[in-house]
């Protein structure tokens, strides 16, 4: 293994250029910039949405595009609070506990609002020679390629022997989509672009309501091949500008449908701009967008980290390299915005389009490890912006500092849940992110920039544990549900999950180091808690998931092993016991119940424990949820056909296995087997803490 030989990055990326030769409901391709994304079918646009509806739906989404339905009954969080007994005092949680068997109307509305919007469907209007509308079965000679190096999506198909060529590209800095079409069908008025707008939808997965055109308004100003559209959905607004090349025309087919056609000629270029505020600046033309994207993506791939597996002889290496390259692209276009992404990014809605802060670790930590720290840093000011909401939650429950939400939206309000509001493993995350920032830029400016996030996080963490007089220790919980959510019904009695104990220790100890770096004294209360924090429970020589019965359930996330792998070493974890625990989990766990980030999590633990063979094996566990589609997405189920925490987790684990971690063996790629089959080359990666 070597990390010294120069990597031909163009060859590395180009050998994983995505090429398709037929429509597939699960393999639409996306272009985007981290804040805005457009997902296309085999035509390069969103021509056949019904074909993809049961696979990966076709959406146009942004981090700013949200809709809130009317709330005539004035539902608020106080309507769904339920008190839990914590050390003799009542602590309110938004668990909606008075509505067994489902959520109350108040909780249902609060969970679904705000919800992320499908900003507009941009597809083709295709007509056959008999004037009937062409369907997807009428397409022949289909081919499509996503050039990762330039961010360019090229599509080609035929209708009745006539060829249509399409290029689709997204601007890297602006929420602008550019399209170029070449076809004789344009001049025959049998091919046009149709832009259609839906209403917002309070649905777990679907972002668009096409059945109620009366509930929203589209205003337009059309002139000289351009148009300015104002979208009004209740109290929410956004704006769309369209600009066509010479000969292009725009006409309104209905209030919410606009047709863009070529009045003469066989080519057409159209640029679409989307914005939460009125667009006053001129849109760039197609060639400008194409050039900007090419410059951006070439810079992306030639900077930051890279791993080349082409000299490996293990038969799994080629597939691992494909997953790694495609995951870099997918997380860049979906997870690098100014807010944490939803688990399905900007491709389709999941959980109403809201994001889960416990997943932000898997979405974004890899950016730091791949020397793209700026992509992680983009989302950190958002935590500062929701500090008032997080502090209000902590105060309501009788705690200090900031209690970060679980399932949330831009406003930082938590969502009522019988599970989510009881999770705590997202609480130390901001300390981990800021520590990565400090490792990248170890200066006072970094410390000052993030000190408030670190200290408010630590204040909550220090006030949350309960003093157990009899055991002379601090305990985590109740009310609590660990990362392994299988213990949800016991939330009022759960205590001391192994993973969360280790993460609590590490987080508070790291916050103390921040105090010392800033010239402050260590907080004696924090040190007292660190010293007297409960130790994880051991039964039959293994770490259990939690301290209380049923101790360990062998399904869902095997998160107890994250206490040494995901979490750096702490005095709470014995490596020999963790090694036995990992081996035990690998033998007994119910793999169909696991999730996409579990496999890289296991690999990280195996690597730290000196088991590189087990680390690689973990990345390739045979399970439906460890499947990576042709477009690079980590498939989970029909309900959740893509899952970006799996992609991001893979990138973190592979970077760690290649570049190492603090205290790792001093050999090349210490997390990969030294057996002659893993001759990997890497450059630009950073060690994990």
Briefly summarize what is shown.
The protein is α+β, with helices and mostly antiparallel strands and 689 residues long. Helix content is 29%, strand content 21%. It has a domain at 33-68 and 113-300: Beta-galactosidase, Chain A, domain 5.
Q: Which tags fit this structure?
A:
four-stranded antiparallel β-sheet; Beta-galactosidase, Chain A, domain 5; nine-stranded antiparallel β-sheet; alpha+beta; about 700 residues
Major sheet summary line: 9 strands, antiparallel
In what order do the strands lie side by side in the largest sheet? 1-10-11-12-13-20-17-16-15
Q: For this structure, what is the CATH homologous superfamily of the domain at 33-68 and 113-300?
A: putative glycoside hydrolase family protein from bacillus halodurans
Please state the oligomeric state of the protein chains shown. Answer: single chain
The residue ranges in which pLDDT falls below 50 over 5 or more consecutive positions are: none
CATH class of the domain at 33-68 and 113-300: Mainly Beta
| Number of strand elements | 30
By secondary-structure content and strand pairing, the structural class works out as: alpha+beta
CATH topology of the domain at 33-68 and 113-300: Beta-galactosidase, Chain A, domain 5
Spatial shape: globular
Separation of the first and last Cα atoms: 22 Å
Indicate the CATH architecture of the domain at 33-68 and 113-300: Distorted Sandwich
The helix fraction, in percent, is 25-40%
Individual helix count: 18
The percent range for strand residues is 15-25%
């Amino acid at each position: 293994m070597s990390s010294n030989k120069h990597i031909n990055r163009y060859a590395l990326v180009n050998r994983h250029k995505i090429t398709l030769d037929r429509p597939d409901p699960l393999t639409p391709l996306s272009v985007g910039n981290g804040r805005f994304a457009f997902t296309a079918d085999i035509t390069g646009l969103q021509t056949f949405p019904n074909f993809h509806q049961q696979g990966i739906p076709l959406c146009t989404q942004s981090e700013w595009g949200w809709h809130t339905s009317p709330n005539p009954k004035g539902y608020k969080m106080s309507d769904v609070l339920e008190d839990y007994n914590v050390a003799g005092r009542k602590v309110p949680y938004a668990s909606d506990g008075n509505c067994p068997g489902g959520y109350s109307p108040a909780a249902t509305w609060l969970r679904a609002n705000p919800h992320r919007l499908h900003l507009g469907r941009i597809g083709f209007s295709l007509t056959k020679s008999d004037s009937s509308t062409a369907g997807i079965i009428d397409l022949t000679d289909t081919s499509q390629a996503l050039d990762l190096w330039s961010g360019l999506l090229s599509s080609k198909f035929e209708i009745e022997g006539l060829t249509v060529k399409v290029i689709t590209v997204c601007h890297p800095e602006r929420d602008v989509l550019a399209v170029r079409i070449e076809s004789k069908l344009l001049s025959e008025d049998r091919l046009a672009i149709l832009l259609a707008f839906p209403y917002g939808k309070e649905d777990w997965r679907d972002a668009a309501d096409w059945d109620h055109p009366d509930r929203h308004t589209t205003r337009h100003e059309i002139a000289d091949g351009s148009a300015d559209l104002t979208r009004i959905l209740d109290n929410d607004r956004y704006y769309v500008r369209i600009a066509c090349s010479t000969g292009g025309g725009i006409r309104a087919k209905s209030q919410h449908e606009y047709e863009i056609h070529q009045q003469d000629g066989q080519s057409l270029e159209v640029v679409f701009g989307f914005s939460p505020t009125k667009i006053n600046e001129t849109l760039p033309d197609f060639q400008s967008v194409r050039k900007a994207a090419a410059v951006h993506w070439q810079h992306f791939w030639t900077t930051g980290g890279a791993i080349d597996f082409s000299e490996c002889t293990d038969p799994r290496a080629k597939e691992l390299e494909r997953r790694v390259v495609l995951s870099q692209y997918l997380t860049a276009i979906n997870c690098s915005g100014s807010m944490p992404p939803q688990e399905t990014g900007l491709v389709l809605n999941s959980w109403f389009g809201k994001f889960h802060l416990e997943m932000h670790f898997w979405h974004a930590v890899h950016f730091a490890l791949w020397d793209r720290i700026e992509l992680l840093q983009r989302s950190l000011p958002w935590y500062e912006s929701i500090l008032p909401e997080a502090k209000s939650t902590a105060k309501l429950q009788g705690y200090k500092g900031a209690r970060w939400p679980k399932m949330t939206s831009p406003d930082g309000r938590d969502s009522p849940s019988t599970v989510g509001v009881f999770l705590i493993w997202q609480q130390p995350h901001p300390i981990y992110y800021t520590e990565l920032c400090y490792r990248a830029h170890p200066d006072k400016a970094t410390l000052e920039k993030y000190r408030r996030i670190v200290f408010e996080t630590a204040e909550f963490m220090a006030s949350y544990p309960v003093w157990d007089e009899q055991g002379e220790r601090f305990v985590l919980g109740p009310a609590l549900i660990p990362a392994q959510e299988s213990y949800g019904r016991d939330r009022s009695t759960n205590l001391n999950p192994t993973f969360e104990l280790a993460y609590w220790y590490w987080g508070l100890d790291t916050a103390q180091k921040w105090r010392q770096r800033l010239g402050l004294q260590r907080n004696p209360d924090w040190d007292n808690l660190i010293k007297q924090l409960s130790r994880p429970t051991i039964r039959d020589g293994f770490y259990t998931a939690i301290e209380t019965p049923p101790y360990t359930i062998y399904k869902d996330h095997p998160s107890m092993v994250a206490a040494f792998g995901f979490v750096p070493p702490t005095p709470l974890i014995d490596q020999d016991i963790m090694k036995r625990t990992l081996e035990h989990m690998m033998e007994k766990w119910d793999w169909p119940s696991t999730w996409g980030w579990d496999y890289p999590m296991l690999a990280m633990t195996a690597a730290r424990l000196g088991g590189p063979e087990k680390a690689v094996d973990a990345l390739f566990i045979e399970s439906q949820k460890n499947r990576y589609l042709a477009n690079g997405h980590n498939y989970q189920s029909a309900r959740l056909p893509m899952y970006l925490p799996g992609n991001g987790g893979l990138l973190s684990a592979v970077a760690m296995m290649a570049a190492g971690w603090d205290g790792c063996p001093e050999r090349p790629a210490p997390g990969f087997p030294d057996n002659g089959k893993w001759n990997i080359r890497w450059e630009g990666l950073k060690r994990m803490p």
